[in-house]
Amino acid sequence: MGNAAVPANYVPILVFIGIAIAFGAVSLLAGWVVRPSRPYRAKLAPYESGSPLFQDARVQFPMRYYIIAMLFVIFDIEIVFMFPWAVAFQKLGLVGLVEMVVFIGILIVGFWYAWKKGALEWD
């Protein structure tokens, strides 16, 4: 680290954070100053299209919807782990292949468990 004090090493980071905050604040302020503000009745309605509401917007979704959404996110994120593996496949060799087979096996077991618990019934 040398003779420099540790807090002095963080000065560029703090300057960068300050510039980012200032840029965001100036952008919001410039938009507030420049944009026109001409509210009227139809514009202040919940939907700017002017169509009247025909039912309450708060609808209860079945729990299965949230479970399927979570499973989608989980199985979608697995690609984030598979892509670097595929890029470095030849360097990893047999060990990398075995690790990926174990990873996919864990995902399949989780998918099977969700299927058996009834979370993935396709009615």
From TrEMBL:
The chain crosses the membrane at residues 12-34, 65-86, 92-115. GO terms for molecular function: NADH dehydrogenase (quinone) (non-electrogenic) activity; NADH dehydrogenase (ubiquinone) activity; quinone binding. It is a multi-pass membrane protein. It is an enzyme of class 7 (translocase). It catalyses: a quinone + NADH + 5 H(+)(in) = a quinol + NAD(+) + 4 H(+)(out). One of its GO terms (cellular component) is NADH dehydrogenase complex. InterPro entries: NAD(P)H_OxRDtase_bac/plastid, NADH_UbQ/plastoQ_OxRdtase_su3, NDAH_ubi_oxred_su3_sf. It is found in: Cell membrane; Membrane. Keywords: Cell membrane, Membrane, NAD, Oxidoreductase, Quinone, Translocase, Transmembrane, Transmembrane helix, Transport, Ubiquinone. Pfam families: Oxidored_q4. Its EC number is 7.1.1.-. NDH-1 shuttles electrons from NADH, via FMN and iron-sulfur (Fe-S) centers, to quinones in the respiratory chain. The immediate electron acceptor for the enzyme in this species is believed to be ubiquinone. Couples the redox reaction to proton translocation (for every two electrons transferred, four hydrogen ions are translocated across the cytoplasmic membrane), and thus conserves the redox energy in a proton gradient. NDH-1 is composed of 14 different subunits. Subunits NuoA, H, J, K, L, M, N constitute the membrane sector of the complex. Belongs to the complex I subunit 3 family. HAMAP family: NDH1_NuoA (MF_01394). This is NADH-quinone oxidoreductase subunit A. It comes from Nitrospira moscoviensis.
